[in-house]
Amino acid sequence: MSYYESDALTIEWESTIDAVVMDWHNFAKGDQYREGLEKGLELVEEKRAENWLADLRDLGTVTQEDQEWTQEEWHPRAFETSLSTIAVIQPESVVANMSVENLVQEFGSNENKSRIFSDRDEAESWLKNQ
User: Fold this and answer.
1) CB-based contacts of 85: which residues, under 8 Å, 6+ apart?
2) Which of 34, 91, 113 is nearest to 67 (CA)?
3) Alpha helix segments (H runs only) across 10-128
């Protein structure tokens, strides 16, 4: 069952990997992008989740403003939750992938584990083994 749905995103709790799962299926920016991340963080707090899986294959490029917001506003709050492991399925676009790599590296540099995957099954398997 979905926790949150929009034109761009579906957020669910996946008990088999004890993870908040974000499936981006469209480009999102500004309020729509930020609301999605906020809803994901709400579910992390509700479930006391340690794992996060973000499928970004269809997200598109994250705007510079949204990257800055993520780093300056969202990451500090995410670091204060139970979240410790993040798996990201990389965007198909090379340009979009570059913007995501920076955000994932920052998360992993804060005593958390983060990794980028091209295959969803591999990402889920990695989360199960953390």
Assistant:
1) 50, 51, 52, 112, 113, 114, 127, 130
2) 34
3) 30-47, 64-69, 75-79, 94-108, 120-128
Q: Which tokens sit at 75?
A: 């990451």
Joined tokens for residue 107: 């998360």
The CATH number covering residue 17 comes to: 3.30.750.24
> Pick from 90, 30, 5: which is nearest to 54 by CA?
90
What's the rounded Cα separation, in Å, for the pair 126 and 123? 5
**Tens digits of residue pLDDT in 49-59:** 999 999 998 88
- Residue 129 tokens read as 């083994």
43 alpha carbon, distance to own chain's centre: 12
Closest CA to 119 of 62, 27, 60, 57: 57
pLDDT per residue as tens digits for the range 72-84: 999 889 989 999 9
- Domain span including residue 15: 2-128
